[in-house]
Each structure stands twice: as structure tokens, then as C-alpha cells.
Request: fold
Amino acid sequence: MGKSLAHKIVESHLVSGEMKPGSEIGIKIDQVLVQDITGTQVFLHFEAIGINRIGARLAVCYADHNVLQVKPENMEDHLYLQSAAKKFGAWYSKAANGIGHQIHLEHFAVPGETAVGADSHTPHCGGVGMIAIGAGGLDVAVAMGGGAYNFVMPRIVNIYLTGELKPWSSAKDIILELLRRITIRGGLGNIYEFSGPGVKTLNAQQRVTITNMGTELGATTSIFPSDEITRDFFTRIGRPGEWREMLPDKDAFYDDRIELDLSRIEPLVALPSLPDKVVPVNQVAGTKVEQVIVGSCTNGAYADLKAVAKIMKGKQVHPDINFIIHPASRMALELLAEEGFLTDLLKAGVNVAEPTCGACIGTGHVPAPGTISVRAINRNFRGRSGLKDDQVYLVSPETAAATAIAGVITDPRTINLKAPESELPSRINQDNPNLVPPASAEEAARLEVRRGPNIVPAAPKDTLQDQISGEILIKVEDDISTDHIMPASAEILAFRSNIPKISEFVFYRLDPTFSARAREKNGGFIVGGENYGQGSSREHAALAPMYLGIKGVIAKSFARIHHSNLVNFGLLPLLFEDKKDYDRLSPGDVLEISDCLDSVDKMNFTITNKSKGFTFKAKVNLTARQKELLKLGGLLTYTRKTGLKGK
Ligand code: MIC
Ligand code: SF4
Reply:
């Protein structure tokens, strides 16, 4: 049996372990991406490990989330990042350039290479044949230093595409259809590899939209082959020399297979407030809307905006609607301006805002209570827009534009217009003034890192105690995202580099008393349902609870990146052996574990509920490496002790 493309790339980068699904492997990382709200911690960890020069072939730091610098702390973070990037050997993308994933695609992606990024949508570049994985900041700091990235070898699942999209159906509808089928929990432990005749009908940017949002399936990553169509993209963006063909073997082995006929996909919408609550747009057509947004790393590319511009040309945004666009790339915006498409958008009354994550992460354009927001972005977790009880619907850019004209949710097939094609840019200027190169090693030795008062790291956790006890401080339901645990929005994002301060906001929207209670009780436990910690890669959802003294989370299941983050910061990721025990626990119950160290080794725990007088069993899913680092108090202490493995 031949090899899949994912298998080939992982194999060619393997430094430790056996490529058996479920067992831990370490791979060499070629490229590292960080952004402004995870990057400060990445560089702080990097410094704390004691590394002084980047060891990966390429590292880039993107100032893309806090672009508006609405608080002085944002610019302070940017100054720290820019100076640290230059000194330690990373590129820096200024807060003007656009969203990191798309800028990385346009300037740095190379088919066949590996990347880790401190952001969950790092699989973006999987659309051009890379193995690109989102990870917590501490894992990324290790990879940036040149150490291996360790993860559990996923199952490689083939998504076999046939047919061709009909007019008005888009790449976004393909990934929404996959979310409808697979769900936000279904991708855990999988890499999705796309093949089949349908692949040839999708251009590189359409493929990227799909791999980007494969994150919402909970997958490790997603990948398309790098073929003639990918080559066309690399030629257009001015980097033809960096294209390589990367294909699976004809008789490639896959652990599973899903078939998808593109010609059967219709315009779809994810209802509030999960990306897999997907129904056909026509089921909710006619719903009154107040706000429409197109942008984010999923839908802010040239192809998306040009399609919207073509729909809006000669039309007007409905008087009751605010239509906002956040372009993903300023270079692409420049081209749209030259070609006149920006003018078409402006004339129609579209608010073309900064190239930034912006509203996607709740920075600006926060909806008013009781309003409906229709967005061509990737996530609609409740509260993420900045409004606690928001109503955010996820759609394609085409459906968003049709809705903006009509004022109500609209199936784009019903407007009297020819469907725009997905069109790629004719060029992307590689001479980008917003990309700042790293200093040479010689110059770097003379440079200082700028550290303002908001740069406040947290000390690593102590070694794991054999006996731990504490109160259940909060009990939450299924599918709690990191946006619930460590919310975003402008007010809180200002403190990503200041752990004592940001820890005041843990579970802030669910229970504003959580942080004060945790501090007062000297920590305790969190009880969660299925898929605890889904969504972002933000390690603050583990790091800030660690700072508050949280000992562990007992859940029915964990999302991939959050599970690693808990372990990396020395928190126990406990799984109910019998999920029914979840119902027997209440906030305020005092729990005790008396032989923690041995239990970690055996991966079996007996937990005593001292308040209610019963015991129950929990397990953990840990690799040998994770057991060691958990006992030491986390990955930072472990790496300091063992050095950078795989270098
Ligand atoms: C997100 O989309 O939730 C973010 C903001 O990009 C996060 C990163 C973060 O919270 O720092 C992600 O996806 O990892
Ligand atoms: Fe930015 Fe949104 Fe993409 Fe996260 S999902 S990187 S916040 S655009």
C-alpha cells in the first residue's frame, strides 16, 4: 500500500516515536508562526528556557489581533514582540499587514514543509500541501528554539471529493457541510487529507478556506496536495521557485474515508452558537439582520472580497444593515484598490475596516443585545463577538453579501445576479513594507528587548504534590470553549502578556466571581463536560487557572490543544471513567486525591468527594513524556532540565 501525503511529510520530519495512530511522535519543525496575543508568552517562554537564537528554519511573529491598539498595553506588547523578534531571529509583521495566516500563505508557505503556530487556525497553509498544526505557546516556544514538536500520531482520514461546486456554493459551504456531518467533536485525533477529482476544481485559496476551518472539526490538521493548481497560485504571488509538487501515492493507505460530492452542496449557515449547527440557508431565509461581517483568516482573502465586490457593484447596503469587511491581507487590498473593486465596495456603503482579526475576536463591531449578526468568519461560540448572549450566524461571503443587500438572511441563489467565480490575485507584491526581517546574529548581540510594565510572566508551577485537595469551583456543560474559560475582547486582550492581571478574567462571562473565589480558596478543581477547551490554542486558558492555583480539570473529554496546554502547565487533565459521575458532583464539593504521583504513572485515579462521602474513578491519557513533565510541574521546567530534544 502506498503512502498518503500527510504520512510522507510527517515521515520525512520524524525525529522520535513510531507513526502508529495514538502513539506519541516528535517531528522537526521548519516554520514557526506566532501572533501578538499568543506571541508575548511564546517569547517569554523562549527567554525563560534560556535560548538566545531561533533554531527553526523560519519564524514569523504577526501583529494581527490587536492591530487597532485600543489600549496602551497593545502597543507595549507590539514593541516587546518587534524587538524580541529582531533580536532572536524572527520576521515581524507590523500591525498593518493583515492576518498572520494569510500573510504567511502569501509570503512564506512552502509545500512539503512542517509548521507549528501559536494559533488554532495554523492549518491554513495545509491548503498548499504543508503539515501545519496549531499548538499552545509553550510547545511553540520549544519548536522555535529548534526542538521537536511532540504530538499524538493522528489517524489520516481521506476526504474524497467528486463533482464540482454549483454557482453560488462556495468553499465555505464545503467546510460547513463537513461540520454538519462530522461535528465539532468528530475530528479529534484526525488529519483530514483531501483527494479525488473534485480537488482539481478548487483553487488554492478555496482549499485554504477548507483547511483553515478544519480546525472547527477539532482535527489535528487538514491538507490538500500541492499540484499544478498550487503552482499557479505560487506563480501569481511571485514565488514560483518555492512551489514543489507534493502528492500522495496513487494507492495511498488511509485510516478512513469520507466521500463528498461537491455538486450537491448548497449554500449553508451555522446557526447560533456553534459552527456545526449547520442548516441550508433557505431554512432561515427572511430572518431580519442588523449586522453583516466578511473577513477573518477564513474568508478575508482577495478571492472572497472580489466576489463580494462583484455582488455589491452598483447596489447598496440595506439601510438597516451595517456591513463591515476586515480584509485578511493589505497587499491584496492594495490590488483590489488598483483594480477598482475597493471603490465598488465603498460606493455600495460597505465599511472596509482594518486588515485585522477585529470583530472575529470581539475587538470592535460588538453587536447590540437582541440583534442578529451574519458573519463570513469561522467561529460563533456564544459571547465571542463581545456580547454575552449574541446571535451570530456563519455563512459564505456570497451569502453575507446577498444578506447585506436584502436586510434579511438571503439564499444568494435567489438574487437576480450571475454568481461570481472564485478569482485569485494576479500578483502579491513580495516587497512588503510591513514585513521586518530579523537582525543578523552579529547585530542581534547589540540589541535590547523592550519590556514595558505590562510584560509580567508567571513563575512555573511547583512539582506535582502526592496529595491534593480542593473545592469544585465551577461545573460547566459540554463544548465549553477557551473563549468561555479565558475570554477575549479588547478589554481582556490587553493583558495577554500580564498573567496576574489576566487571571482576574478566568470564566468571567460565565461567573464573574470565579477568579476571586479561586484565589481565596487557594485553587481547586474545574468540572467540565464533553470537548472541554475546544476552539482556540490560547494557553492562557490553562496558564491563568494555573496561576490561580487550579489543580486539575475533571471532564468527560478534552479538545486536543487544550489538553496539551493543561499538561504543559502542570494541571491534571482528568477524565471521568464513568461519565455518569459528572452528575454526582456539585460546585462547592471538596475533592481529594491522595496518591497523585503513582496515579499519574498508572493513569488511574481514585478521587474522594469529602463533602458527599463517596469515591469515583478517573483516568488520564498521557504519553510517557507527558507523565514526566506533569510531575515536574510542566513543560518549561522539563525543557530546562532535559534540553531541546530533536535539535
Ligand atoms: C481565535 O481565533 O480564537 C484566536 C484569537 O485566533 C486564538 C488565539 C488566541 O486566543 O490567542 C486561536 O484561534 O488560537
Ligand atoms: Fe484572527 Fe479570527 Fe483567524 Fe483567530 S480565527 S486568527 S481571531 S481571524
